[in-house]
Structure formats: structure tokens, C-alpha cells
Amino acid sequence: MLNVQVPHHIAIVMDGNGRWATGRYLPRVAGHKKGVDALRACVRHCGERGVKVLTVFAFSSENWSRPAEEVSGLMDLLAMALGREVPQLRSEGVRIHFIGDRSALSDKVRAGLAQAEAATAANQRLVFNVCFNYGGRWDIAQAAARLAARGEPITERSLDAEMALAHVPDPDLLIRTGGEKRISNFLLWQAAYSELYFTDKLWPDFDGAELDAAIADYAGRERRYGRTSEQLRGQGAKKAA
To answer: Is the pLDDT of residue 240 over 60?
Structure first.
């Protein structure tokens, strides 16, 4: 276990599955299957390191525009993963939440998501949020729509309470694999003060050592939230006294 400050909440854009497969002359779906293996290991690593919340970007609302064969393969992979992974996650104390618009998903997939959430609802070791058919703009819009439908004022506080991740604190650290340096419509509201970490490592190759490197980088940063370094030092001195 790392002897550094560990983020309470880590969010990850799992990028690079397709390129991992293409580089090995494999179909893109093979990369997504390998990505599931990497995700399984990442959940375990986070639990071992004391992370309390893990949120991953599994399927964006923009991913529907990908080739139909790849989208179909991703849906099949989700169904398979639900049946295979949920019992193990339940035994390890992981609570699963699926975040996103479920209206476009099949009845079978929606039922599988609900069953997985119900089966792990009592767990408390790690909250595992899987963003599926999710987009940050959708999240903000649906929160505002809920408030408007109830005739309630739209403020920062009221919007925050209606966001899809209102059940957990905002991410402390947001990681993106695959070499791209953008967050691609992921957690636009929640990532306002997240520390960003970008790595060239493709997601299927993201392992415990890579996670440790991201956490160590995070631990070396000063999180000021609009304050000055002097104010933080003064606050630390008061606590010490």
C-alpha cells in the first residue's frame, strides 16, 4: 500500500482499448474484452489502496456513432460482464452504481443493471460507479430538468443535489489513459476541482504500478480550492496548534 495521501474518489476515462487491439491486428472488441480485465484489476487495486469511490467512463452518449458491430459487441460484453463479475464484486464489498441514460438500452440490459445494483446495495468497502450511456452535458441538463419540473429554483446547490453522482463526493483525481489530453464530456460538473492526470498508457495496459504513479503524482500537488499557499500553510499551523 502506498505511503502517500490517497484520493478518496478517483475517476477514470478508460481510453485506448481499440488502439490496443488494432496494434495487435485484432478486432476492436478484443481490446474492450482486455479492458474489462484491466478494470477488474483496477477495482481490486483501488480497494487495496484505500480508495473509497471509483468512477469509470465505460460508454459515452457519443459512442453510439461508432460502427454498429463495435456497439453491439460492447452491449454483449456488458451483459457478459454483469453475469461474471457481479458475484465477485459483491463478495469483495463493492457497491455498484450505473450512471447514465438507460432509456436507449434494451430491456435485458436495463434489468441486468438494476439486478447488479440491488445485489451489491449493502456493500460499503468501495463505491464503483460505471458511467454507461453517459455524458456530462446530459447530466447537467437532466438535473436542471428535474428541478424545473418541480418548479424549484436552479442554483449551484440544487443542481448539485440532482446530479447523477450526488451520492458521492466529487472526484479528487481524474485519470485519462491513451495519450489524449481532454476529458471528453465526462463529469463536467463534478470535475471542477479535480486534479487531472494524463498517461500515454493504453487502458488494457493500465496496471497497479500505473495507478500508483497517478496517486503519487496527485499526492505531490497542492489543492488550494481558490485559496493561496500561504492560507493553506496558516490553516495547517492552526490545526497543529
So the answer is: no
173-176 and 9-13 strand pairing = parallel
Task: Using DSSP, state whether 167 is helix, strand or coil.
Answer: coil
130 three-state secondary structure: strand
Residue type, 160: D
**Coil, helix or strand for 128?**
strand
Half-sphere exposure of 82 (CA within 13 A, CB side): 22
Question: The pTM is what?
Answer: 0.89
Q: Which residues are catalytic?
A: 15, 63
Helix or strand or coil: residue 240?
A: helix
- Taking 60 as the threshold, does the pLDDT of residue 118 lie above it? yes
Q: What angle do CA 201, 69, 110 make, to 5 degrees?
A: 90
What the block records as the C-alpha cell of 170 is: 466529487
Length of the chain, in residues: 241
User: What are the tens digits of pLDDT across the range 225-237?
Assistant: 565 666 555 665 5
Residue 14 to residue 58: CA distance in whole angstroms: 7
- pLDDT at residue 188, rounded to an integer: 98
Q: In terms of pLDDT, which residue wins out, 25 or 106? A: 25
Task: Classify residue 119 by burial, with Cβ atoms within 10 Å: 0-12, 13-18, 19+.
Answer: middle
